[in-house]
Input
Amino acid sequence: MKKCTFLILVVLIGCGIGFSQTAQKADELFQNKQYNEAFEAYKNLLKKQPKSTLFLYRYARCADEIGQKQIAIEHFLLAGEKYPLRNFYLAEIYFDEYQFDNALEYYNKYLLAINEDNEKYEYVNNQITTAQKGSRYLKRVEDIQIVDSIRILKSNFLNEYNLSEESGSLTYSNLAVCYTNQRGERKIKAAISQDASNNIDSINHSIFNLVICQKLMDEFSECDTLKDGINSNFNENFPFLLSDGITLYFASDRPEGLGKYDIYMTRYNSVTDSYLTPENIGMPFNSPANDYMLAIDETQNIGYFLTDRRCSPDSAMLYKFIPNNSTQIIRNQSEEYIRLAAQMKAYRTTNRVQPLVANVNKQETKNSQLQKTIFFVLADTIAYHSLSEFRSIDAKILYEECMELETQQNEERNQLLSMRKAYREASDEEKTTMKAAINQLEKKCRAHKGEMLAALNKVRQIEIKTY
Output
């Protein structure tokens, strides 16, 4: 009997040591920001201690980092209030998903737990202000019809604005846009008022104001600053004047906007020789990111606008849309769809509602992408062979992103194969230099593979809920 008790005690002690070592390994992975590996480690730990506040919190943090937002939300909520940063991260996820009311709740909770000298204090207050505006704008999201979308380099964005001669012309130089009307006798442009930065995204103080120049005989007059009400103490840039000569669109980073640059509209009143107070044109044109250069070609009935939401620092997404004759607000749709439409993740085409396909290749049409053959195993007895089989808009959009990531992974794998081949044929001296580059690319490939698997799992989790 004593021997049996002793053996049980030894086993229990061994299990305790093994569990401790597993928790320590998970902590090491988390501290080293190896979130994919840490995610799996904490997932296993939670099977043994499902109510551990630390494990729930860490698991949620890892899920957030690898893009599994719904899992992150669920486990942050289960973790409770023990860790104040939980409220911050929850708020950030809700903010990014345009669930602004939820974001406000958790930003405010986080503020109660920190002092004014905390490094996040000012940022959180700014996020609260933006979330309050976002919540209001979500009540009036315009229903627009998207024709095409192209990811482009910011430096070349005007190359894609194919305006008719009747709509005037646009030029871009030294970070400033100049609009010239059809007759070539009027220009509205952004003029430098202070030393300019080399990056429009880093402009945090007034640099550009809008000015107007009139052609007298064969030369343009000195440019005059547009009337009070247009310019502010912040940047005004990217002007476009409709063919009526009255309606002016421009972008500004004034603080009353949703984020960085927002698009505004105003009209000229010839009786008072002044412009009406500019109006923020709202969602989906504007977002917490940079949104600029809206132009409408009334001859071709096509509009353009540029945004860098969900883009790398040097790129932006150009959307082409059919202008509405009057503002059409989205009504009789679910809150989920309105949020997607506000983010430009869903759009209207004819009488159907479907997810937006963002073309990376200009020559690739939306139809060819939507009809692309796929093979996606949702469950043991369910497999999809076409994008049209998805029931959830969220799952479909995420799967399309996975397809883009898969293309990127294939390119990286091909590059890795070429580098390895070159390495085998290189001299010892060359191998020393090449080894670091190969190791770095291998690490990148592993990380992208983890992201891909995590994203596909999320697609399954979202889509399976529709059955």
Residues 371-464 form one domain. The chain has eleven helices and 19 strands. The longest helix spans residues 428-464. Residues 6-12, 195-200, 350-371 have pLDDT under 50 and may be disordered.
